[in-house]
Design brief:
alpha+beta, Tumour Suppressor Smad4, eleven-stranded antiparallel beta sheet, 5 helices
Length: 298
C-alpha cells in the first residue's frame, strides 16, 4: 500500500496528552512545549490533566477536533486516553513511549525532538486504524453506544459465575460461549489482551475482528476471526448473573441476562502517525521478540 504523508495546516495547533502520574513524562512535556513555542506553534493541554506552563487549557473534548495534531507522552494506556478524548474526531496522534511495551506509542522518547521536527516538515506518514463500535440494548429498553480502538471485553461480574452468551454473526447463530469473558479485538488491539488470552495476531491492515474467549468452559471453544463489514451480536442468557462491559480497559457498564451487545466497525478510522517505512513485523520483533527462538531463555 502506498504511504500517505501527513500534511499539517499552516496555522498549527498541537495538544499534549501526557502520563499524569509520571514526573518524567511531565518533564518531557514541558520541554516539548518549549520546543513547539520556539517555532511559534500554539500549544494546548488536553482536558483531564494539569495545565502545562505556556499552554492554553482545553476545557472539553470537543475542542480537540480543532487541533492539527495530538502528541502523546506515555504508554499505550495514555494513548488510549487520548483516543477517548478525541471521541472519533480524525485528529492524528503522534505517540512517544514512556511506558512498558508501547505498541501504540511506538516512537522512542529519546528521539522526541527529532521526530517532532520530521512531523512538522511533513515527513511522517498516516496510518489508518479501524475502530470498534459497540451498541448495547439493555432488557429495560435503554440503548447505549461506545467506541474502542483496541478491544471490547465482556467479563464476569462480582459473582463467581461464568458469563454465558450466544454469539451471532450476520444474523446467523455461531455458537454458545461459557467463559470468564469474551474479547472482541480490532487488528490494532490484537497485540493486547487478545494476545495474552491466546488469540491470534492480526496485521493492522486486515479488515477483520477477532473474538477470543477468556478461560472458556469448553476446550472446543476457540478464537474466531470475522470480516468487519457485518455485525457480531452477543445475547447474554439466564445463566449470566452479572457481567462487566469494558471498553479499551475502562469499565463502562454492568450487564446481566437478556442484555444484547452488538459489535461492528466504526464508520471513522483512527489516524496514527508513523515514520516512513514503518514495518509491523519489525515492531513485533522489537516489542515481543517475535520469531526469536531464544527469547524464552533470556
Amino acid at each position: 500500500m502506498k504511504e500517505k504523508h501527513l500534511k499539517l495546516k499552516e496555522n498549527k495547533k498541537i495538544a499534549l496528552v501526557y502520563r499524569i502520574h509520571s514526573p518524567e513524562a511531565v518533564r518531557v512535556a514541558k520541554k516539548v512545549v518549549e520546543k513547539l513555542r520556539s517555532k511559534r506553534i500554539k500549544v494546548f493541554t488536553a482536558p483531564e490533566q494539569k495545565q502545562l506552563d505556556g499552554t492554553t487549557m482545553l476545557i472539553s473534548s470537543n475542542e480537540l477536533k480543532e487541533m492539527s495534531l495530538v502528541i502523546v507522552l506515555g504508554g499505550d494506556g495514555t494513548y488510549l486516553r487520548a483516543v477517548r478524548l478525541l471521541k472519533g474526531h480524525q485528529v492524528p496522534i503522534l505517540g512517544f513511549n514512556m511506558g512498558y511495551l508501547g505498541f501504540l506509542t511506538a516512537h522512542s522518547v529519546d528521539d522526541v525532538f527529532a521526530t517532532i521536527d520530521e512531523t512538522l516538515k511533513n515527513k511522517m506518514v498516516i496510518h489508518s486504524r479501524s475502530r470498534i463500535h459497540t451498541s448495547v440494548k439493555l432488557k429495560t429498553g435503554r440503548r447505549l453506544s461506545f467506541d474502542a480502538l483496541n478491544d471490547v471485553v465482556i467479563e464476569r461480574g462480582s459473582f463467581s459465575q461464568l458469563i454465558s452468551t450466544g454469539v451471532y454473526f450476520d444474523k446467523n447463530y455461531v455458537n454458545h460461549i461459557k467463559a470468564d469473558g469474551v474479547i472482541i479485538s480490532s487488528p490494532t488491539g490484537s497485540t493486547a489482551y487478545n494476545l495474552a488470552a491466546g488469540g491470534p495476531l492480526l496485521h493492522p491492515e486486515v479488515k477483520a475482528l477477532v473474538l477470543t474467549p477468556v478461560a472458556p468452559h469448553s476446550l472446543t471453544t476457540r478464537p474466531l476471526i470475522f470480516p468487519d463489514d457485518k455485525k457480531i451480536v452477543m445475547k447474554l442468557d439466564q445463566q449470566t448473573a452479572t457481567a462487566h462491559l469494558i471498553i479499551d480497559g475502562q469499565k463502562v457498564l454492568e450487564l446481566s441476562q437478556d442484555d444484547e451487545v452488538t459489535i461492528s466497525r466504526c464508520e471513522m478510522d483512527h489516524i496514527m502517525i508513523r515514520r516512513a517505512g514503518h514495518n509491523f513485523f519489525e515492531l513485533l520483533k522489537e516489542k515481543l521478540k517475535f520469531g526469536d527462538r531464544y527469547a524464552s531463555g533470556t
